[in-house]
Amino acid sequence: MSIRVGIVGISGFGGGEALRLIAGHPSFELVYAAGEGSAGSRLADRFPGIPPRLAGLVIQKWAPAALPPLDLLFASLPTGASAEGLARVAGSVKIVDIGGDHRYAEGWTYGLADVWPDEITGQTRIANPGCFPAATLTALAPLLADRLIEPGNIIIDAKTGISGAGRGGADSRFGYAESNENLLPYGLLKHTHMPEMARTIERLGGGSAAGLVFTPHLVPMTRGVLATIYCRGSATTDQCLDSARRFYAGRAFIRVTDKPPQTKWATGSNLAFVSYAADPARRLVIAMGVVDNLGKGAAGQAVQNANLICGLPETAGLEGAPVWP
Amino acid sequence: MSIRVGIVGISGFGGGEALRLIAGHPSFELVYAAGEGSAGSRLADRFPGIPPRLAGLVIQKWAPAALPPLDLLFASLPTGASAEGLARVAGSVKIVDIGGDHRYAEGWTYGLADVWPDEITGQTRIANPGCFPAATLTALAPLLADRLIEPGNIIIDAKTGISGAGRGGADSRFGYAESNENLLPYGLLKHTHMPEMARTIERLGGGSAAGLVFTPHLVPMTRGVLATIYCRGSATTDQCLDSARRFYAGRAFIRVTDKPPQTKWATGSNLAFVSYAADPARRLVIAMGVVDNLGKGAAGQAVQNANLICGLPETAGLEGAPVWP
Amino acid sequence: MSIRVGIVGISGFGGGEALRLIAGHPSFELVYAAGEGSAGSRLADRFPGIPPRLAGLVIQKWAPAALPPLDLLFASLPTGASAEGLARVAGSVKIVDIGGDHRYAEGWTYGLADVWPDEITGQTRIANPGCFPAATLTALAPLLADRLIEPGNIIIDAKTGISGAGRGGADSRFGYAESNENLLPYGLLKHTHMPEMARTIERLGGGSAAGLVFTPHLVPMTRGVLATIYCRGSATTDQCLDSARRFYAGRAFIRVTDKPPQTKWATGSNLAFVSYAADPARRLVIAMGVVDNLGKGAAGQAVQNANLICGLPETAGLEGAPVWP
Amino acid sequence: MSIRVGIVGISGFGGGEALRLIAGHPSFELVYAAGEGSAGSRLADRFPGIPPRLAGLVIQKWAPAALPPLDLLFASLPTGASAEGLARVAGSVKIVDIGGDHRYAEGWTYGLADVWPDEITGQTRIANPGCFPAATLTALAPLLADRLIEPGNIIIDAKTGISGAGRGGADSRFGYAESNENLLPYGLLKHTHMPEMARTIERLGGGSAAGLVFTPHLVPMTRGVLATIYCRGSATTDQCLDSARRFYAGRAFIRVTDKPPQTKWATGSNLAFVSYAADPARRLVIAMGVVDNLGKGAAGQAVQNANLICGLPETAGLEGAPVWP
C-alpha cells in the first residue's frame, strides 16, 4: 500500500534532498510538490536525474487551501514561513516539518529520532531537529543520560558545509568564489539553534543548560556537519564509548567509533557518527558528532520520523550507504 | 535467490563504489573482498558507513587459488594487474572487469551496456568501459549509428574529477593542496583510453577513426566526467537530439537534454546525460556527455553489466537518484 | 612622482584585483574608488587586508561629473554599463577599460600587451582583452604570425574558474553548493568573447576566422583560465615551441613550457603560460594557454597596459610570483 | 647591499612559500636552495612562475658541509630532521628555522614577531612559531598581557587548510578525492604544537597553562588557519578589542576587527586577524585568530623575523595585500 506524500519547499536544499529520498522510498508515492522559486516547472527541469515516473510532476506554488488529499507532508520552509500554512492543513495530514518553526512548539513532537523513537511513533506532527542539533545532541545524549558530563558546562564548536547555510543566489557570502578557500565563524553568541539544544540537553541531562556556548563555523564544502563539544566530567574515553554503545545498541543509524569521525563518512546517508576523547585528570570530555546536514541533519531524519509515524520500518528508504569519495 | 558476489581491488575508488552498490543491491550477497592496501582490515575499518551485516567481512589479499565459491566477481585492478589472475578464475565465475586489461580482448565482451545490452546478456566475461569512453561513446553512439557525423574527424576534449585519476597516496599530483584550484591537460596524444574509443567508434560509425583526437584534463573536483566532442556533420541540433532520443528510447539510464549537461547532475548515480549543439552552416556538431566516473564510468555500469549477465532487471540496485548538491 | 589613479567598479572581482595591484604599485596612488554595491563603505570594510594608508578611502557611487582630478582611471564595469560614463571623462584622463564595451571600438586600442606593446605605448584609451581571449590569443599569436596554423580552422575549448563568470549574490548558478563539484559547458556557439577573438586572429593570421568555434566551461575553482585549442597545421611540437620562444623573446610575462600548463602556476600573477603538442601526420596542432582570469585575464594586464601608456617600466607592480599552492 | 640567502627544505610547502617571498624581497638574493625531493632540478622546473633571474638555480641535496657562504638561511624541514644539520652551520650564518625542532630550545629565540619584536632584533637563531600557535597566540597575547583571561582555562578549537598538514604524495589522507568535502578532528589531546603554546601562554599570562586543551581540525581548503579559543574572564567584547588595539598599536601585520575573521582575508599575506566576542555574565571570552598557515603561520613570519635580525625594515618584502577571492 503506498502512502501519498507531498513536499513543500522543494526549491531549497532540504526539500530537494527529501525529494531524492522519497523518490527511492518503497512505500511513498510523491503526488504533490510546491516551491517558491520553481513553481510552474516540471520536476525534471529542476532535478534532471529524477526517475522518469516523477519527471512530469509540475511544481506548485504553496497554497494550503489547494492541497490535494495526502497522507503525509514534508515541509522545508525558511524560518518564520511555515507556521501559518501548516496550521491550516495540520488536521488533515501527517506533517514532518524540516524547518525551524515548530521545534518545541505546542502540539508538535521534537523528532530526535535516534534518541526518542518511542515518543515519535503514533504522533502526527513532528518538528525535525536542525542540522547542528542533530550532530550535537546525538553525540551528547548518552553522556547526559548516564550523567557523565555536566549539563551546565558545555561548549559546542560546530562546523557546517555551505548547503547548511543557504543557497547561492540569496547571498554573496555563499557564492563559490567568495566561499571557496574560506572558513569563518558566524552568529557568535546568538545562533537560532541555541534554544532547541538547550531544551534538549536539559531534558536529557537533568540540569540547567544555561551555560551553553555554541559557535557555528562555515566550512568550504557542500555537505557535512561536525560538532566538537567540550564538556566537564570525570569519565574516561572508554566509559564514554561504552555509554554510547549501550545507549544506541540496536539503533540502525548511529555508529560509535573510536577514531575521530569525518564528515565524508556520512555524505548522502542518514548516518550519524559519534566519538569521544577524555582526560579525566583534567575533568575534560570531548564529544564529537558527524552528520550529513541534509541527511540526518534534515531530510534523512525527516524520512526516519515519517517512517515512525506511518508505522513503517524505521529504515525504509534510508538504507543507502554513504557516497565516498 | 541471492547471488554470491566478490570484489577484487576494494582499496581503489572503483572497488569502493562497487562495494557501495553491491551493499544496496537486492540480489547480490557480498561474500568476498580483496584489496592490496587494505588486506587484513574489516570492511567497517575502511568503510565506516557500511551496513552492519557486512561490517565484519575481512578483506583478503587477492589470491586466485583461494577464491571461495562465487557466482560473480567484480575486478577493479590497475591496468596490467588483472589479466593473469582473472584468467585463472574465469572458468568458474562470471566476471565484470572494471579495470582496463580486457577491453576488446579475446573472449571478453565490451560492456557498453546502454548501447549493446543484447550482446552482453548471456555472456560471462565483461570488460567494462573506461570512464572517458563511457561519457564519450554514449554521446556519440546515436550520431554515429545514424551517420550524422564523420567517424574520421572527431576531437574529444574530456575533463575528469580527480578520483578518475588515482588515489592521493600514490602521487603528489593528486594531493589536495596541489590539485585544488588547479586545472590541467595531461597525456596529450597518447592516453590509454584512445584504442577502445577508436574501436567502438569504428564499430558504430562505419568508418575509420584514425583521425581521433583525445585530450583529457584533470579538474579540481572529486567525481564527474564531461566530454565535449567536436564533430563534422550537417545535422541540426534538433536532429541530433532526436537521433539520441530514438536511439535511447526506453533505456533507463540515459537522459537526453536540450541544456548543456552538468557533471553534478550524475553524482552517485549510473545516469549518463547527453546533449548536442550544432551549426550546419559550418558542418559543426558538438556532442556532450556527462557521467559520474565512478558510476556509469566504472562501478555503476559494472553492476548494470552484472545484472545483464545474471538475468536480473537491468536497473536492480541502480535506482538511486543522484546526490545533489 | 606618483600617478593619481581611480577605479570604477571596485565591487566586482576585476575591480578588487585592480585595487590589490594598485595598492602594491610603486608609482600609483589610489585617490578614487567607485562601486555600485559598496558605495559609502570604507575600503577596509570591503577589503580587510588593504594597507592602512588606503583603509579610510570611502567608496563612491560612480558619477562621471564628480570625478576628481586623476591621471589614470581603471574601469571594470559589466558589459553595457561603461560606454556612456567613460565617454564623458575620456578627454581628461587616461583610461584602461577592463570591461567589455570598448574592445575593437572606435578610438580605443585593443590592449593585448604581450603581443602589441608598441601599439599601446603612447595611447590614452585601452580596451583590455577578456579573460578567455587573453589565454587563447597569447597561445595562438606566434603560430598565426609564423603561419603555422590555419586561421579559418580553430576550435577553442576553454575552461574558467567561477570568478570569471560572476559574483555569488547575482545568480544561484555561482553559489558554492551549486557550483562545487560541478563542471559544465555554457554559452555554446554564442559567447560574447567570440568577436574579439575572431578579429584578433584575423589581424594576426592573415585570413578569415569565420570558422572559429569557441566553447567555454565553468570549472569548480575560484581563479584560472585554460584554453585548449585545436588547430590545423603541419608544424611539429618543437616548431611550435620555437615559434613561441622567438615571438616572446624578452617578454617578461610569457612562459613557454614543454609540459602542459596548469592554471595554478599563474594564480595571483600577470603571467601567461603557453605550450603546444602537435601531430604533423594528422595536421593537428594543439595550443594551450593558461592565465589567472583576474591577473593577465583582467587586472594584471590592465596594470601592464597602464604602465605602457604612462611610460613606466612594463613590469612595475607586477613582479610578484604566483601564489602556490 | 644585498643579503645572500639560502633555503633548506624547498620541496615542502613552507620552503616554497619562503622562495616566493625571497624572490620578491628588495634586499635578499637567493643563492642556495636545497630540497630532498627535488634535488638536481632547476628552480623553474619546480616553480614555473619563478622570476627568470632565479630560474636556473639548481636545487641541491642538503649537505651542511657544502653550504656556500651565506648571510642568512631559512630552514623548513620536517620535525626531527633539522637539529643536527643546523647545529653544524649555526656558527657561520643567521638562521630562521621554520620547522619545529628549535622552538623554546637552548640558544634559540622564539620568533613570535608581532608580540616580542625587540627580543628578536639582534639575535642570530630564530625558531619560527608553528601555524596553529601563530593564529592562537596572536589572538590571546593582548588578553593574557592585560590579565583579562585565565591562563589555566583555555580551550583552542583550531582549523587548518590541508597545506598545513602535509603534501599529497606522503599520505592518502591528504589526497584530493579523500580530503575534498571532508572535515575531521585529529591528534586529539596530543598535538605537537601543544608545548610551545603552553610555554608562550605562561610567559604572557603569569600563570600555569596546565589546563590547556587543543583540538586541531583538517578543513578542505589549501591555505588558512582559524583558531576559535574559549577562555574564562569577565571582560566585555569592547574591552577585549581595546586591549588588542592597544597591544598591537603601530604593528604592521595585525588587524583587529569587530567582525569574526575569515581565513581568506589573509591568503598569501603575512597578516593576522584577531577578533573577540565576550559574555561577561557567563565569564566567557571567545578569541579568534586567523592567519595564512604558509604566511604568518610559516614563511611570512620567517621573513619578518629575518628582517628583524638583519636590521631591515620589518615589512620589507611583505607588503603584498592578500589575494582575494
Automatic annotation (TrEMBL), chains A, B, C, D:
It holds the Pfam family Semialdhyde_dh. It is an enzyme of class 1 (oxidoreductase). The active site is at C131. Keywords: Amino-acid biosynthesis, Arginine biosynthesis, Cytoplasm, NADP, Oxidoreductase. It catalyses: N-acetyl-L-glutamate 5-semialdehyde + phosphate + NADP(+) = N-acetyl-L-glutamyl 5-phosphate + NADPH + H(+). GO terms for biological process: L-arginine biosynthetic process. Pathway: Amino-acid biosynthesis; L-arginine biosynthesis; N(2)-acetyl-L-ornithine from L-glutamate: step 3/4. Its main location: cytoplasm. It comes from the Bacteria. GO terms for molecular function: N-acetyl-gamma-glutamyl-phosphate reductase activity; NAD binding; NADP+ binding. Its EC number is 1.2.1.38. Residues 4-123 form the Semialdehyde dehydrogenase NAD-binding domain. One of its GO terms (cellular component) is cytoplasm. Gene3D superfamilies: Dihydrodipicolinate Reductase, domain 2, NAD(P)-binding Rossmann-like Domain. It is found in: Cytoplasm. Belongs to the NAGSA dehydrogenase family. Type 1 subfamily. Catalyzes the NADPH-dependent reduction of N-acetyl-5-glutamyl phosphate to yield N-acetyl-L-glutamate 5-semialdehyde. This is N-acetyl-gamma-glutamyl-phosphate reductase. The gene is argC.
